[in-house]
Amino acid sequence: MLENIQFANPHFFWLLVLLPVAALWYFFKRKEETASLKISSIKGFSTSSLLAKMKPALFVLRLFALAAIITALARPQTEDISSRTKTTKGIDIVMAIDVSSSMLARDLKPNRLSALKDVASDFIRNRPNDRIGLVVYAGESFTQTPITSDKTIVLNALRDITYGQLDDGTAIGMGLATSVNRLKESKAKSKIIILLTDGENNAGFIEPQTAAELAVEFGIKTYTIGLGTNGNALSPIAYNPDGTFRYGMRQVEIDEKLLEEIADVTGGQYFRANNNNKLEAIYEEINKLEKTEVEEFKYYKYEEKFRSFVLLAGILLLVEWLLRNTLFRSFI
């Protein structure tokens, strides 16, 4: 209980310094005023002498009363805090994800697409105050889920992303244009696209530069991520008779110049992820760069506790007055 008590006027505790000063003053004053009488026997004076020795207890009661009054002046109180948060600057985010066959390459574990989904899931969970949408693209593009504040919907949609939803290819311009289309009507103060690819633009009827110009027109910042190791990676190269992929070593070719251009013209930033840890670090960096402003209101409710100390002081002074005017009256 005591650890929850605070004092509104703690400077009043400096008055406690006066109490030992008053005690010393009383001690020397009483010593000067006390007369001594030598007698041969104190028989018959035992009760009176005991009361005389207890007389300083009256002054002690007064000191305790003063201490209680000083504590009351310091205003002991308990504090109950309630808070309410208000998002003052929301961010709308679209994550554009390459789902071409090369995303099944195994230079990231277990493969590029699965590694991306794991990291993107954590990113989504760390953006509780923002709206997020998903766009997938390969040879063409479509909206996996429109921007929404319901993270359960977004996470379920992300989990359901697989290879084979679209014709194969890498239509970076289409993926970016679809993402811009999702955000162009947004009223959010900040709108961003996170575009990830592991290849070069080789499909679609919208050029990436044209899509980037559209992003600029609608005030949409784009972060681009090139995914894949340096050199060769174990990638799908053909189909087996049973329809599964045959894997072999293939040169990793990412159009980094294009991705840098898109990021620069839209005010974003380009990142290269060549392993799982780097991919995770990139999403953490974007998470830090794009902060949502949250305004927090705190309400303080104080419960005053000084009344009990005032009551205690009153009781002590009353007891001191009664004793002074009854038992100790003859010694005053």
UniProtKB/TrEMBL annotation:
<dbReference type="InterPro" id="IPR050768">
    <property type="entry name" value="UPF0353/GerABKA_families"/>
</dbReference>
<keyword id="KW-0472">Membrane</keyword>
<dbReference type="InterPro" id="IPR036465">
    <property type="entry name" value="vWFA_dom_sf"/>
</dbReference>
<feature type="transmembrane region" description="Helical">
    <location>
        <begin position="12"/>
        <end position="28"/>
    </location>
</feature>
<feature type="transmembrane region" description="Helical">
    <location>
        <begin position="306"/>
        <end position="323"/>
    </location>
</feature>
<feature type="domain" description="VWFA">
    <location>
        <begin position="92"/>
        <end position="286"/>
    </location>
</feature>
<dbReference type="InterPro" id="IPR033881">
    <property type="entry name" value="vWA_BatA_type"/>
</dbReference>
<keyword id="KW-1133">Transmembrane helix</keyword>
<keyword id="KW-0812">Transmembrane</keyword>
<dbReference type="Pfam" id="PF00092">
    <property type="entry name" value="VWA"/>
</dbReference>
<dbReference type="Pfam" id="PF07584">
    <property type="entry name" value="BatA"/>
</dbReference>
<dbReference type="InterPro" id="IPR024163">
    <property type="entry name" value="Aerotolerance_reg_N"/>
</dbReference>
<dbReference type="InterPro" id="IPR002035">
    <property type="entry name" value="VWF_A"/>
</dbReference>
<protein>
    <submittedName>
        <fullName>VWA domain-containing protein</fullName>
    </submittedName>
</protein>
<keyword id="KW-1003">Cell membrane</keyword>
